[in-house]
Structures are given as structure tokens and as C-alpha cells.
Amino acid sequence: DQQVKQNSPSLSVQEGRISILNCDYTNSMFDYFLWYKKYPAEGPTFLISISSIKDKNEDGRFTVFLNKSAKHLSLHIVPSQPGDSAVYFCATNTGFQKLVFGTGTRLLVSP
Amino acid sequence: DAGVTQSPTHLIKTRGQHVTLRCSPISGHKSVSWYQQVLGQGPQFIFQYYEKEERGRGNFPDRFSARQFPNYSSELNVNALLLGDSALYLCASSPSGGELFFGEGSRLTVL
User: What is the pLDDT of residues B45-65, one digit of tens each?
Assistant: First the structure.
């Protein structure tokens, strides 16, 4: 039973446009969410996080929005760049550094 | 500074064999976690160790075991390998809390 769901396995956008990656979760007790990016042959790297006390967190081109009532979060990348092409994982922290990941969304940014 | 290093990077085993995967955390990091990533899925939590003690265990059979050494490096052992154990095994380290830093992983193929 997937506690964190990423329903879009892939997303294609053009360079300079906005990329929006979505994530849904099932447990309203989850209170900390993270996004990781993974390139082929590399381990996941931390991108941005958000605590449930906030509804938005911004870091440069990356913004994460949290809608607690809908149990939904999204990652916005503006403007998208070809180097952003990777698999993006949404995750939540369910214990002492125990992360539960979604299945990932593969983003392709074309020039 | 060296990141999280894992060895071997690739290995092939046959069903019923045993495998040992190794992980060296970032210098100064006392916590090590192990994750299994099956193709097309997100990483799944296996174990977390802090100061040489097991702090968390995921939903994996007893064939999976791990330990952490005094220098904070770690081993993941899997006995009686099954075809379904074929996956990318990721190690992550962190200081006492906070962000996880992942290694590039050990890709295990079971034939």
C-alpha cells in the first residue's frame, strides 16, 4: 500500500517553461516532506524540503507547495533547464531518518 | 571531501548465494541507512544504524541483516538470495539528524 504516490511516471517540458511535479500522500500525520533528484548511475540528491507548518518553501528555481487538506504537494521548477532532466522522488520522513519514497517522476527538459 | 562510498558497484550472484555490500559514510557522519531500489520503484527503507546500534528496520525478511562498525562504516548482508533481490542497494549517511546523503549504490543482479 503506497503511502506516497507519484501518479505521473514521466513529464516532458521545453527549456524555459515551468515543470510541475505532483505527489500525494495518505497519512495526515506526515509532517515533513522532501524532494530528491536522481541522475542515472548516481545516488539520489536532496533538493528541497517542507515542514507541515508551512505551505510553501522556495530555493532559487525550485518551489515546493504543500496542501495539507488535500494531502498533496508539488514541486515547481522555473525556468526548467536541460540539466534538470532526471528522476524526481517525493518522500516523507516517518521516523528517525526513515524515508518513505514515491515511485518517482522522470522529467525530460528539451532544448 | 569524499562522499558516501559503496562497494562493489556491480555484482552478479546466483540464487541461494550470499552477498555482502559495504558502505563508508561521509567523515563525521555517525548514522548510516540502507535502502533497496527495485527498477521502476522508489527506494525502500531496509535498516538504519546510529552509533553502531540498529535504530530502525523496514519490512524485509530475516535474510537481510546489517551492522555498523566502530569507524561508522557499515555492511549489508543478504542470505539465500532470490531473483527478487535484484535491485540497486543504496547507502545513505547523515550527521545525528537531518539530510541524508546517498552513495551511488551497489547494483545486484541475481540469476
Answer: 999 999 889 999 999 999 999
